[in-house]
Every structure is written in structure tokens, then in C-alpha cells.
Amino acid sequence: METLHPAEVRVLGCLVEKDMATPEYYPLTLHALQNACNQKSSRDPVVNYDETAVEQALARLQDRGLVLRVSGAGHRVEKFAHRLGE
What we know:
Blueprint: H1 6-21, E1 28-29, H2 30-38, H3 51-63, E2 67-70, E3 79-82
Antiparallel strand pairs: 1-3, 2-3
């Protein structure tokens, strides 16, 4: 498997963290995922990804089968979840 880009690592890591730490808010919307990636505490390095950077990382992770889009009943907006446990 090819090495993940740093943005992909951050996005995937945030999805895993939020799944474990705050399952009531998981899966995450694009906006929530962007905020998680850019939070300034417990992050090294601190980054400032815009929405496009997060979307591009999500697209690459989806292509690898590591992330999926979640939509349907109960979701007003599209959300994203990791597939590492599968």
C-alpha cells in the first residue's frame, strides 16, 4: 500500500479519534471534520486546512477504501466515517 499524505493521516486520525471519544457526534460532517483537523490542542503539527484540502484528503481515502460517505435517514447533511475496523 502506498504511503498516506499528511492530510490523509490527519483526516483519518480525526475520524478514529472522534469515533472513540465522542461517538454521539460520529460520523462527522465535512465542517466538523475540518474543525477537528484544525483544532489547536492535542495536535502536532497544528494545521489550518481549508474545506478543499479536507475534501481532497477524503476523496483519496475513499479511493483507498478507508473512508465512506454516510447519508440517508437521520442525516440532514452528508457525513464521513472511517472503515478501519472492517
